[in-house]
Amino acid sequence: MGQKLTVGITQGDTNGIGYEVIIKSLLDNRITDIFTPIIYGSSKFVSYYKKLIEGADSFSVNVINSASEAHSKRINLIQCVPDIYAVEPGRRSPDGAKAALTALQAAVQDIKVSKIHALVTAPFNKQTLHEGGFAFPGHTEFLANSFNVSRYIMLLCSDVLRVGVVTGHIPISEIKAQLNKELIVQKIKQLNDSLQLDFQIAKPKIAVLGLNPHAGDGGVLGDEEQQVVIPAITEATKQGIFAFGPYPSDGFFGTMAFGAFDAVLAMYHDQGLVPFKTIAFHSGYNFTAGLPIIRTSPDHGTAYDIAGKDKASPESMKAALYAANDLFKSRVQYKDLKRNVLKEIVPGGAQIGLGN
Q1: How far apart are CA 143 and CA 101, in angstroms?
Q2: DSSP letter at 134?
Q3: Lowest mean pLDDT among 4-18, 88-102, 208-222
Q4: CB atoms inside a 10 Å sphere around CB 130
Q5: Which residue of 44, 66, 179, 206 shows the fewest CB atoms closer than 10 Å?
Q6: Strand 263-266 relative to strand 205-209, pairing
Q7: How many Å is the maximal CA-CA distance in the chain?
Q8: How far apart are the C-alpha atoms of 349 and 341, rounded to whole Å?
Q9: Which residues sit opposite 181 in a β-bridge?
Q10: 3-state DSSP call for residue 201?
């Protein structure tokens, strides 16, 4: 795909490290040769934070009213967040949460009507948003609801490892009740589909982790492996998916066994994300697979403890930005290939619905 894409970037919590990692990522002028960035936020906050970042004095934004006005060789900003919100680095506040949600809503509205091609979200504070009435555990669930998607998977990615989760942002106490064969099969299939569609891996190999220590140790340490995990792997295999396991999480990551697979499916959030962030914290990014749009984000939170101190690393945000551009193009290429195959097999095949 030769078209230069437009990537929307939401500011996240005003008081976190969102603006710092955005500005640091976009300081490299070469980035506008690859895609056109549009920040959804406030020029007031950009001006505030660039003064706190060494070497950012020359950073500037092209303030626009609509994504259609974006300059392809500039860092653009849609002024969608009111300047009345206070900026207090490192402090959890209602203003910081409101600004994050306002920017997110504006960007989602634009990507729904194809004014931007892909979306990258800076982190917000879930607790503060919930206190303000936000009804979702995080970005992932909000976006799934926004696009009427009930089946999706949170996928953490880096150059060396991809990890998806069966259960996401739920309490540990609820994991066992939510796990069942059907859900695990669904997540294996979604992960397989995304590896083919978004990463152009023709025959993905997926490692599935067990739930219990030592993957249950033959039922001695829990029977979820025998009752739901193994039957799910068996069913996925019958559907032509290369799924293997269940593997004990500690030994699997400790021996670097993940190198033999295209992705890993963990049973719950921390089982997958703790080893992922240990291995690829600065180079990794979050990707919501299963949405009709491309959405990525850095794999870290608001980091209030270092906000405003010029200590935040932009590497994960950079990875999320480049990945958003690459994933969109990969998805288009996959669909084009699929259409061409259908044209050869079925006359008029280009008109057949191809899904996401």
Answers
A1: 12
A2: -
A3: 208-222
A4: 13
A5: 66
A6: parallel
A7: 63
A8: 8
A9: none
A10: coil
Burial 137-164 (b: 16+ CB within 10 A, else e): ebbbbbbbebbeeeebbbbbbbeebbbb
User: Which is more confidently placed, 282 or 293?
Assistant: 293
Closest CA to 23 of 11, 5, 36, 7: 11
Q: What is the pLDDT of residue 335?
A: 80
State residue 352's pLDDT score: 37
Give the DSSP H/E element, type plus range, for residue 220.
none
- Please list the residues that pair with 165 across neighbouring strands: 266
Q: What is the rounded (10 degree) CA torsion for 39, 44, 48, 51?
A: 80
Residues 66 and 36 sit within 8 Å (Cβ to Cβ): no
Whether the predicted pLDDT of 349 surpasses 50: no
Using CA atoms, how far apart are residues 314 and 311, in angstroms rounded to an integer? 9
Give the per-residue pLDDT at 2: 56
pLDDT in tens, 217-227: 888 888 899 99
Write the CB contacts of 278 (distance below 8 Å, at least 6 apart in sequence): none
By residue count, the chain amounts to: 356
Confidence tier at 261 by pLDDT (50, 70, 90): very high
Residues 191-230: pLDDT tens digits? 999 999 999 999 999 999 999 999 988 888 888 999 999 9
Whole-Å CA distances, 108 to 9, 114, 139? 10, 10, 11
Closest by CA to 190, choosing from 232, 129, 147, is 232
Token readout for 342 is 């259908």
Q: Work out the angle between the directed axes of helices 18-26 and 315-345 (0-180°, nearest 10).
A: 70
Q: Which amino acid is at 347?
A: P
* DSSP 3-state of 92: coil
**What pLDDT does residue 356 have?**
45
Residue 80's nearest CA partner among 38, 122, 48 is 38
In terms of pLDDT, which residue wins out, 184 or 348?
184
